[in-house]
Amino acid sequence: MEVKIKAIGTKPLLLHNVDLANPFGEWYQRLRDLSGTPSKRRTDKWEDEKAYCQFMGAFYDIPEVNGIAIPTENLRRSVLIAARTTREGPKVEKGLAVTEPAVRIIYDGPRTPQELWDAGPEWRLTRMIRSRSGASPTTYPIFREWAVIAPYELDPDQLNANDLRGFAERAGKIEGLGASRKQGYGRYDGLVETA
């Protein structure tokens, strides 16, 4: 049975693509090259270039989707984590399957990463992030009003639609999507539509 999960943002969404840690990726390599600059030679221009690379590297490169996208697995995982809080994670693992690799993020504004950067600081958020070597600024794309509608295949023998509705609702309140979820970003109202 086909279902759609709608995530309608209640808190800002911050994007952060895990591929930014891929040593073969363009943005990883550019950040690595920047980190080789001694701290005494780091200028405001250097900081701007670092922020730009973090921002651009945070987007998912998904050619099948026209516009800014997010993997449908991310929303599925949010629902799965919510189901695990009631020990019903196996129902979601077995009963909810991804049917498309990614979907567009619905928002009003520029449609490409470069256009978002060029549009100004209202599309960026820089936060201090702790690591083993101390805290450093990290820049994310931010979407203050957003939504996602993602299709899935539901196996009713494993998971019924009413349980899925409860998990999706809980996921939006306790797990969210995107980066900095522990700080409350990416929260949403989770809704489920059946075909």
Q: Strands of the largest sheet, in order across it? A: 4-8-1-9
Secondary-structure-based class equals: alpha+beta
Helical fraction: 25-40%
Give, in order, the helices and strands.
Answer: EEHHEHHEEHEEEHE
Please, could you describe this protein's structure?
The strands form three sheets. This protein has a four-stranded antiparallel sheet with strand order 4-8-1-9. The chain has a domain at 2-15 and 66-112 and 143-194: Alpha-Beta Plaits. The chain is elongated, with a radius of gyration of 18 Å. It has six helices and nine strands. α1 (26-35) packs antiparallel against α2, α3 packs antiparallel against α4 and α3 (72-84) crosses α6. It has 195 residues and is α+β, with helices and mostly antiparallel strands. The N and C termini lie close together (7 Å).
Which key features would you list for this structure?
9 strands; four-stranded antiparallel β-sheet; about 200 residues; about 35% helix; about 25% strand; Alpha-Beta Plaits; three-stranded antiparallel β-sheet
Could you give a quick summary of the protein structure above?
By secondary structure, the chain is an alpha+beta fold. It has helices at residues 26-35, 44-57, 72-84, 89-95, 113-119, 161-174; strands at residues 2-9, 13-14, 69-71, 96-98, 102-104, 124-131, 134-143, 147-154, 188-194. It is built from 6 helices and 9 strands.
Summarize the SSE layout with pairings.
Blueprint: E1 2-9, E2 13-14, H1 26-35, H2 44-57, E3 69-71, H3 72-84, H4 89-95, E4 96-98, E5 102-104, H5 113-119, E6 124-131, E7 134-143, E8 147-154, H6 161-174, E9 188-194
Antiparallel strand pairs: 1-8, 1-9, 2-7, 3-5, 4-8, 6-7
Helix pairs in contact: 1-2, 3-4, 3-6
